[in-house]
């Protein structure tokens, strides 16, 4: 183990200086961290394990950095991908401390995490674990703060190096081939590469031994793991330490050698050791670029205590009385871009694809809800739920905007009208420009605006007339009307929830029938002058005949009674309400605050319903259900009726009506039998739906009964909501 | 009265044919009608009086039309303006029947209005009123339907002409100078113009008499009113009838002559009369263009009954038994553009200035409210009320949009931030484009969007930082902070209502102080995760010292106790709540439906308050005030607290707190004494506001009291709303 081929002049022995590792963090790492923060860590500040990647230096111009990429956090999954053009990188294990606020970052106790890492390294040295797995010597720590509102990331790395009791010195430093001669150097390199090639571990060990035969040179040069140290000492020859050296400098080794030499001094008792700093050129270890260092090591007392066992220094009354090595001093905080001790910050906002940024930002608020207040929130489910909005006026716009706020990603707007000049101040998806030249089609303009608000939404707009009972259809029009019916049915089928947001009562009839038939969630919303009703329709009628027969309020046995639809309170069929309307009846004469309130409540009702274990079969919550609603989001009422004049909200519920002209089994059955006949007769024959559902018979009975009672109850006019 | 200068060949006597009048309706008339419909008529279909304007024919190429302009409806105001280049026009009086629906228009009983007009004309002839005021002969009727959603106007004019028992015939028709010779014709013209020039009536009579001296030609030709007919008969000479003739044809008189000749036949018993059809060239009556007609009139029985006295024809059993003149048959419905009998329609939408169209359309919905449901609505007052919105985030956007819906026209947005990618889906005035390149300043982007929605709004955006108690201000920053304070005070002064819509509690402190000091309406709005509070601050403290001293809950004697502000429930001064916030605390983690609901309620609260007779001094309504709220718009509570999870709304009220750190007299007085000292100490000295208001003293007392009670009440953490 003597320095046999020393070329150093006597007295040239200097303090060995190591080039610090440098971190390089890929933006994909930050994206992954942001994602984990939102999805997994949330408010937790518990450290988590990282993989950093590094290679030997591959260019005399630059050192190899320690790199973090998107896979650095994915520890239960993929192996790290090889660096381009090179073999499998070496892994350094790190601990990530991600804190919640910038203030926490600024006041972070970095000495604590450094002490923890150095303690672990020291334990691994003393226990022999680091011999078996030298990667343990390259532990690093990083603490971070991810400002996800701005996509700025604050961070500070440390590569802990335990400081020995006295400096390590170099008796000699030079290139490997200068130190050993070209042949021997080539043989050392060859042996190292063979050993590494034969290594079956997922990741190669970053340090190893090379044995040079002694006087009997017949033996071959071999490479072997650090654990062979003791055995190799028995053999005639020289044992050289080798490690993967990320440093590019011609007269300094890289940072990883520090802890490795400490291991040699502490574990093996070495006072002098020859080291190969293995570096690469063109994908192979290179004897000219690699260094040979003859290191002179201080004595490291075996009694150096693990930090945990040692009393903290401030409690020691007389520092001079404590042995010099008692506290394992540690170095390694990385300097920042200005070369000073301090954290770094990377601002990814400006470099990200804006659409991508928007998508992540939009999800942010929703995911944040899961951290504290609403862990049950299923944002993926909302994003996948397809919503059909029938009507793109005041209510349609309000509903679409709230859906976007909740992260719904599939929104289809339907309307038959064009944007008029009075619309934009109340219909929040339109602007003045949309009104010019006769006005753009509303559905199309609304869908386009949804995309302008958030490019990640799948929004479509469709101009469609919805056939209405009581609105006569001539034989010539029948073909066109039935095409509209077919298209509406397609649309209902393609979506999960159907919002009825039109300005007439009767236009809600066909969608109500279709929702009942196709078992889609129906949400209905209607405005008066200063009051609103927001309701969900009862669940649809499944296609098994039994269900149809039983699909009325009273029938279900196991679950709650099926709830009513918008028409279930009516005892007459819907008629044409648009004929002969005066101007104030044609325009939406409602207090302007009504539509945003009702639209928002309609969406909140859907979101709450979607989180209810029974979905649209959930029983109607009432104000007295407050104690423990089954949905994590709160009450799932049947109907919410409110007034801005009285500033109240009532929760009302009612079962499905046996003779309902829209959702009753008779109507749905007739749709299934002959949809064209149903629609045409409903449009053209005022009494048809009442006959079909048995309302006519009921009226006759009631009339007979009333005759006995006189006409006291004549004034039963009801508002349209 | 014999036809002395007849040049007609015998037997050439033909039926006299009259050119119908044509209507021309200025678009300003339709605008005025639209305005009247909204402001005055509303749902009324009562007829109203119109002025139509016409002139003599002024070109041989075209007839002069009957014109309606914006002044046609303004009967209590301006005299009609003269047609360009001509003298005062003649007036025809009309009746306007504006109906409420297109169906009513289509089925309008036009025979009825025609019969009514002809009856009036006949009465005026028989009574002599038409002699005194010949304009009464030119009565017309028009019935209209104004489709104000589309700016389409449907209309049909009639110029009633009573049909005599037998046709009127022309013994002779020719130009005036051909009939009389140039000199005499010139003299007739001269006399007519002199008479007209001397006429002191507001509008000239459209018919007059010209007296030609008989055998003794020494007398001068004179013109005089129709009432001179009998007197002129006594004199030697010839009496000629003259009228303003809008017709341009060389051998036909215009429509106004029909009723005039009927008057001559019925009132004066004339069987033949010479008529000057007075027409103009170059601004003067022209003898070549004007016609002379020798008319032969049928006998008109004096017994021709007024229509009102006559039984309707259908009740007559044998029509042949009724005298021919019994039913005054009337002609005069105008043909439409296609030359058919039928109404006309003008669509002004495409030709109007879009900004003007938008302004009228936006007002439409509001004005419609006054027709039926809310006659007390004062839209002008709302348009004039200036609103300052502090905060342009989720709440700021929601409030601004609802303000626009209510017709507020002055909206100033204030914010200190920039639009970030997560904003547009929840902040309804922003789009994706606003987020790029670091984001546009929010206030500016919001104001611009308000104008894009409705160009008629006066919207401004201002980037301003609002100094906050507990947020330290260094001596170097003091100048800038005080400039912000001064600017905020200016803004508060310039507005009538101040909305506090920020995302921190303490940023509402200074605006609360300023509202109390300047007696501005303060509306406060704050969101939790699924709950909201919307409140109005108590009225401000007037600058008289008394008021300041008494401006607390208990003190007022005459009116209700002054209500509290946002800080009146606090027993500690506001502190910096932004330090060390985690990501979910920095972002608005609220259910997306919350902001539209709370924003809408905040605006509705302001609108209701503004309509309350006591304004911001109105006592707080509670749910039990429901019976008869003093505001026509409903309850004016102090605070509305609601939850989307529980779907309830509570009306809460509380008086101003004597020791309030924001609205109490001590604080307002200190502002008035030294605003800089107040702000700087509030920012830099945590206990200052508590000392100032006496809270510190109160705490000391309470602490002493608590010691006796133990610490049972420790967990008094309260949510931030």
Automatic annotation (TrEMBL), chains A, B:
Top-level division of the source organism's lineage: Eukaryota
All copies of domain THIF-type NAD/FAD binding fold, residue ranges: 369-614
Residues annotated as domain Ubiquitin-like modifier-activating enzyme Atg7 N-terminal: 16-352
SUPFAM superfamilies named among the record's database cross-references: Activating enzymes of the ubiquitin-like proteins (SSF69572)
Localization per Swiss-Prot or TrEMBL: Cytoplasm; Preautophagosomal structure
Active-site positions on this chain: 587 (glycyl thioester intermediate)
UniProt-listed InterPro entries: Atg7 (IPR006285), Atg7_N (IPR032197), Atg7_N_1 (IPR042522), Atg7_N_2 (IPR042523), ThiF/MoeB/HesA (IPR045886), ThiF_NAD_FAD-bd (IPR000594), Ubiquitin-activating_enz (IPR035985)
Subunit architecture: Homodimer.
Keyword terms, alphabetized: Autophagy, Cytoplasm, Protein transport, Transport, Ubl conjugation pathway
Key word Cytoplasm present: yes
Family: Belongs to the ATG7 family.
An individual GO BP term: piecemeal microautophagy of the nucleus
Name by which UniProt lists this protein: Ubiquitin-like modifier-activating enzyme ATG7
Pfam families in the record: ATG7_N, ThiF
Function: E1-like activating enzyme involved in the 2 ubiquitin-like systems required for autophagy.
GO cellular component, one term: phagophore assembly site
Gene Ontology MF term list: Atg12 activating enzyme activity; Atg8 activating enzyme activity
Source organism (scientific name): Cymbomonas tetramitiformis
Main location: cytoplasm
